[in-house]
Amino acid sequence: MYSEANIAILCLQLIGGHIGIPLLIFTFIFMRRRRSLVVVHFCISWIIFSISNTLLLYGPTPLDALTSQGICLLAIAAADGSTAMTTLSTFNLLLHLYLCLIRPAWFSQPQTKHRIKYFLSCTPYVLFFIFFFQTYAWSAPTSGVEGPNTFSLHFCTDTGLIWAPGYFFAVALMGLGALLDILIVVTLIQKRSGPITEKKHFTDILIRMSLFTVYRTIYMVLYIVVTLGNGGHIKVGKTELSNLSQVVGYVKAANPLLVVLILGTKSDVLEFWGIKTPSRFRTHYTPCQEALNSGKATRCTCEKFDDPDELDDAVHDMAEMIKRRDVESGRDFDWGKSEGTSTDVTLRGHSINNVEY
After folding, report:
1. Which residue spans of the chain are classified as CATH 1.20.1070.10?
2. Which of 7, 10, 82, 273 is deepest in the core (most CB within 10 A)?
3. Where do transmembrane segments lie in this chain (predicted)?
């Protein structure tokens, strides 16, 4: 029978990683404004994370000793690999944001741009297999005799430190992610040029990802404390350790659900599902609309996309209206030239430094 804690954890994983994130990817595929390949694979990594951490909950309980050895080893190996994988995919998403905002020259060549995207998308899967097989190499019970790193005869308990490499690597990488967050914020503050509304859009996703990194760091620290306490490596009271273990289980299971909230509450995603958002919360094409309404600006700045066909018809119409207005007023501007900043670009130059979150 499942305990109440296991039922709650399974529900969190099902809502977030088994239903929410696949539905989010489905939305990204059919939206007119597509998401970056890095964003899609970030979501896929969290689906793998959710499945890896619910393998034991899918099986019958209690297990006999021999069955427990194999299933627990598979589950722990997958959990260790997915922890490192999701940490790297989160870091790569921040790195992609950094390159698009601060180093747009890296995306000036389409071939280089696609290589960077594929590299950032694929490396987390490589890391998954590295730590998956590392756990197997350290803990596989070849002789059937319980050792310092093998599972005991009790249901899914271990006495060794097989988890240590993956989790300490994850904590170190999240520290680098925090430094990258700070670097992006400082650079954006120093750059006083560029449209304010567009900066707000990127600042919004940056704040969301930064808070998610903090949340993940707290979870990692709590997990390390609980695991060291269970192994007797640090002294923690049994009652406190039991309560902390439940908290860690809930916090861990809520990770995929947070991914859904971070990426699924963007205005265009909500509008895809028929949920209207107030205009003050809409970030897409806001600078274009303001330029059209004010009559003061002669350039239209907005987000860019990989494929020109992905631009809304309304945005094409808006660009033509602004261009026609400039022609009628006797102005002659080069519509294919950007302003020279990392975020201030014209509609006609939309295919160079694309990022969409």
Report:
1. 4-272
2. 82
3. 6-30, 37-58, 118-138, 167-189, 210-229
